[in-house]
Amino acid sequence: MVTLKGKNIYLRALEPEDLDFVYIVENDEQIWEMSSTQTPYSRFLIKEYLENSHKDIYEVKQLRLVICSNDHATLGLIDLFDFNPMHNRAGVGVLIAEKENRGMGYGAEALELIVNYGFTHLHLHQLYANISEDNITSIKLFENRGFNKVGVKKEWNRVKDIYKDEFLYQLVYVH
């Protein structure tokens, strides 16, 4: 059995009981910029998404896991997306939902677990992250885990009436 358990957190599959949590996260306009969301999601669509979340990463090309504290509190989400088994790569994104839980090492621990899972169990060669130029917290998180900034997508994302650069970070597995 694959254990996605760290010192202070563990990662688990989405469950139907996560409907309210995912609904709140996906409809939080404060984080829409990170996910390129433009419109709210209905409970119906999120329920449908949760009902299909058991599908294999090879089929749907993504994996979303819930970040939980050891006392089983739901802290956030971590995603592998754009999974490409031919080129052995995937994107990764991390979200700690509540501000009071940020900066406590939960995101770093979750990132460590998913990186190890990706390289060990999915046999990935590389992971990448797309991070807005002003998301200093995420930049530090990924750099501290060994991701390197390999590119800048100039004026990539429009946020309200301004364009922001997006940085491309990459972690290549070293054998």
Automatic annotation (TrEMBL):
Q: What is this protein called?
A: Acetyltransferase
Report domain N-acetyltransferase positions: 9-169
Q: Which GO terms describe its molecular function?
A: acyltransferase activity, transferring groups other than amino-acyl groups
PROSITE patterns listed in its UniProt record: GNAT
Q: Does the keyword Transferase apply?
A: yes
Note the InterPro entries from the entry: Acyl_CoA_acyltransferase (IPR016181), GNAT_dom (IPR000182)
Q: Which organism is it from?
A: Aquimarina atlantica
Q: List, alphabetically, the Pfam families matched.
A: Acetyltransf_3
Q: Which UniProt keywords apply?
A: Transferase
